[in-house]
Amino acid sequence: MTAEAVVMNKSAVAMAADSAVTISGGRRGIKTYDTVNKLFELIKGVPVGVMVYANAELSGMPWETIIKSYREERREVKFDTLEEYAENFTEYLSSDGGMLGKENDEYTAVSRAHAAFMIVFAQIKKDLPGCLTSNGRIIKTKFRQVIQRAIDKLAEEVDSMPKAPWADGTTLRQLKSAYEGAVLHLAEDLFENFELTKAQKSKLVATALESLRRSQREAGSSGLVVAGFGQKDYFPKVVSSTISGRTLGVLRATPLSVNEITISSPGHLETFAQDEMAWGFLSGINERVRKSIMDHWSQWIDVSGSVMRERISKEIPELTPEQLAIVEESAKESTHERFHEFLEEMQRREEELYLEPIWQSIAMLPKDELGVVAESLVNLTSLKQRMSIHDAQTVGGPIDVALISRGDGFVWIKRKHYFSPELNPAWHLTHHGNL
Description:
The chain is globular, with a radius of gyration of 27 Å. It has 11 helices and 15 strands. It is 48% helix and 18% strand.
């Protein structure tokens, strides 16, 4: 995982990203490295930066390799707006002449199928105790029923998902033609000891391929953040999207989300990936605490009417059931109204005491302070995880910070290197930049 932040006002935009990457080793646990690059200059000499988070690869290809290859191939590209830079980059990801090809597309299909098959495994494991005899032996007839139910449940879940925006024009027949063999091979390998029927294998494969056309939260997706200025952008913008690989040459990406600085909206702040601590600082309340309060009040509303009815019936036993029903409903309505008053008051205090002063401050910050704020927001999550005995250190390492303005372009404020500049004195000459 990671933590990233973008802070901008009318003069510049600051981008900050940590350096941690977590690699899962399955049952062997996880390993974290603190040297990964997530923040890049999109094109040399152009005031546009790009950050990636979540999955460090796209369809098996490292994001760093993709971005630097794009930079080299499109080094003369210039556009009027930031949105055009983002669209051109995503078009590059979709083009067969770019870094990604059929092998990468198949990688995405197989990875998505693996995730779907793991859902089936989890359901079978959950229902397995019902298939065992008293001495722990499996009852085969019941076990086959469990397998079939797990496959059917996966199919129902996939069918209930909405069609993805990238799936227009993509048919299940096309997906089967391209990836059925690879996904079937995976199914036969994973379910080797389950004695699946031909029909069950066919349904598993079809369901996994159909999931490629559906909108859902995917563990293997990547976040893409592009910020800066187009040639005719006088104020900075930030564009973001979530990308889940590519199939049949089509990029599986959500529509671009755009936020921009204007005269009426002179300051803006966005955080990405793990940002609970950052927004706890900004809003004055941690999201977990907020949820606990909401859950407590919701539970109290549900029982408030019956509690009041029980108390009133003891105090005034001569009341009829009809009258007690009126008391119960009135008590519940009153509690519900008070709850909404509480929420409105808390929202007002949050905005008045915390958010509004921060937005006003961001709008007036000088360039260097924008970088300090962006770095601090990332560091809050890193510090929390470092101090907590319950959280894994999935955010950490050096924090890269860049500042982008129309006059000065893309400028590194902080940047790590895996090598020593003193031992490579010619590096800045061959790479057209200073360390």
